[in-house]
Write a structure and sequence with these properties.
GO terms for molecular function: medium-chain fatty acid-CoA ligase activity. 27% of the residues lie in helices and 26% in strands. The chain has helices spanning 20-34, 48-60, 73-83, 144-158, 175-188, 200-209, 219-226, 229-234, 250-260, 334-339, 381-389, 422-430; strands at 11-13, 16-18, 40-43, 64-67, 87-90, 103-105, 124-130, 138-143, 166-168, 192-194, 214-217, 240-243, 265-270, 274-278, 292-293, 298-302, 317-322, 329-330, 347-355, 361-366, 371-374, 377-380, 394-404, 408-417, 441-444.
Length: 466
């Protein structure tokens, strides 16, 4: 099957531009070098070399393993060893470590090759590594057909066409930046402007100089944009601002709407599921919600005992998904794969959500860290975080459950704020939410620990200090 569109605009990464024909010629040369390999790793920097290497894997029908450029030696060794990658694609300036696969310097290959994209639909296109709460990262097998189904559903939901100019500066080793942000543009045929880094001033420049119309960002990007009125103002000419990879705080949604004139589109997905829920370009966009299922996607909520949870908009449950864009399984981990599905074939996301009678979904958080059981109540951390963020002095907030002798767990908040005390914040939340949802402890800290995609790493919260 053809994963890439027949025609399309150029790709520009950090100022280096490739016309589509030249990109395909270069990728064809990559495909010639790697054809027949079991898997290849790509040193996934924000560069045209990364795009050529990934597209080369697509053309050759060889699974691509994106290697985060900031991965430490242990993580890097695990990904390379676990994936079985036999070659490493990178720029000629890369320095492989001892024991790593042979390096193919992508920038030394010609740009006039010719190759057909004719691998079967069920072939693995990407092996993406994702970390759970315990154990080493697992390799997620993503098929060509899943990527195609997911991108086509998003193109429909967002009215994404070749007339758009996609702008983002996200890492090229995750679903957001690589699948949506590169393969999406190539499949739809829209030009891509990757800003190198996701900075508000670079997004503003792309909006003005490149007529950017479709912008992808994580909440950290949009929070910084909302704090930069001049950059936000430059995005008024855009068509759509899309936020994902973590919940967008309601105050950021509202501030961004005020400054840009756009109500952001929020969506939800995982490495294992690609994007399953989204607001629509032509529909409603509600702060704190991630929309409704994309075409072909089914969802349901389940209680801890597996019983159904009603779609009443209030009762939280674990979100289950069934769709043609689900992953094929975890590489070499049949037991982990089996455990991630229910007996009747639904994927267990591990995320806690509510679903309203109208089908709108709100993600409460991860079952492992964001569902707090306190005094017989089931409390979602996300609701409390949004309440804290509504205080004008609060810049960041993360809420977890911590052990309590009487309640089982107590609501504990870690907050980055200026000129406000913990007692004031507890009272502020109590005025807005049910009394049992108020934090019992507030730690005022200088910053929250985040990963490369801007998500707060809650398992590291107890170790941070004011």
């Amino acid at each position: 099957m053809d994963l890439l569109g027949a025609t399309g605009g150029p790709v520009r990464i950090a100022g280096r531009e490739l016309p589509r024909g030249e990109l395909l010629g270069w990728a064809s040369a990559v495909a010639h070098e790697i054809r027949g390999a079991d898997a290849v790793a790509v040193h996934a920097t924000a560069s045209v070399e990364t795009v050529a290497a990934v597209v080369g894997g697509v053309l050759a029908g060889v699974p691509v393993v994106p290697l985060p450029p900031d991965s430490g030696p242990a993580e890097r060794a695990h990904i390379l060893g676990d994936s079985g990658a036999r070659l490493l694609l990178a720029g000629s300036d890369a320095e492989p470590l001892d024991g790593e696969p042979p390096l193919i310097p992508v920038d030394s290959l010609p740009r006039n090759g010719s190759a057909q994209d004719d691998a079967p639909a069920d072939a693995t296109a990407l092996i993406l590594y994702t970390s759970g709460t315990t154990g080493a990262p697992k390799g997620v097998l993503v098929s060509r057909s899943a990527i195609a189904a997911g991108l086509d559903a998003l193109a429909e939901a967002w009215a994404w066409t070749p007339d758009d100019v996609l702008v983002h500066g996200l890492p090229l080793f995750h679903v957001h930046g690589l699948v949506l942000g590169v393969l999406g543009a190539l499949r739809v045929g829209s030009p891509l402007v990757h800003t190198g880094r996701p900075k508000p001033e670079l997004y503003a420049k792309a909006a003005q100089d490149d007529r950017g119309s479709l912008f992808f960002g994580v909440p950290t990007v949009w929070s910084r944009t909302a704090a930069d009125p001049s950059a936000a103002e430059a995005l008024r000419g855009a068509r759509l601002l899309v936020s994902g990879s973590a919940p967008l705080p309601v105050p950021v949604f509202e501030r961004l709407s005020e400054l840009t004139g756009h109500r952001p589109v929020e969506r939800y997905g995982m490495t294992e599921t690609l994007i399953t829920l989204s607001a629509r370009a032509a529909g409603d966009r509600r702060p704190g919600y991630v929309g409704t299922p994309l075409p072909g996607v089914e969802t349901r909520l389940a209680a801890e005992d597996g019983s159904p949870v009603p779609p009443d908009g209030e009762t939280p449950g674990e979100l289950h998904v069934r769709a043609p864009l689900l992953f094929k399984g975890y590489l070499n981990r049949p037991e982990a794969t089996a455990e991630s599905f229910t007996q009747d074939g639904w994927f267990r996301t591990g995320d806690i959500a509510t679903i309203g009678p109208d089908g709108w979904h709100r993600i409460v958080g991860r079952a492992s860290t964001d569902l707090i059981k306190s005094g017989g109540y089931r409390i979602g951390a996300g609701e409390i975080e949004n309440a804290l963020l509504a205080h004008p002095a609060v810049r960041e907030a993360a809420v977890v459950g911590t052990p309590h002798d009487d309640l089982g767990e107590q609501v504990t908040a870690y907050v980055v704020a200026d000129g406000v005390g913990g007692k004031q914040l507890i009272d502020f939340v109590a005025e807005r939410l049910s009394a049992h949802k108020r934090p019992r402890v507030v730690h005022l800290v200088g910053a929250l620990p985040r990963n490369a995609m801007g998500k707060v790493v809650k398992t590291r919260l107890p170790g941070i200090t004011p």
